[in-house]
Specification:
With 43 residues, this protein is mainly alpha-helical. It is elongated, with a radius of gyration of 19 Å. 0% of the residues are buried.
């Protein structure tokens, strides 16, 4: 097995696990990640 791949594998696995954990945590409240608000012209 390639040494570079062996070193990157734990980082990739932690990243994927973190993304899955965040997505599962946000399922309950269903709030969007980006909130868009309308801006008044005279503001």
């Amino acid at each position: 097995m390639d040494t570079e791949l062996l070193l990157w594998l734990p980082i990739i696995l932690l990243t994927v696990a973190s993304i899955i954990k965040i997505m599962n945590k946000n399922k309950g409240n269903r709030k969007p990640w980006i909130r868009i608000e309308e801006i008044k012209e005279n503001e």
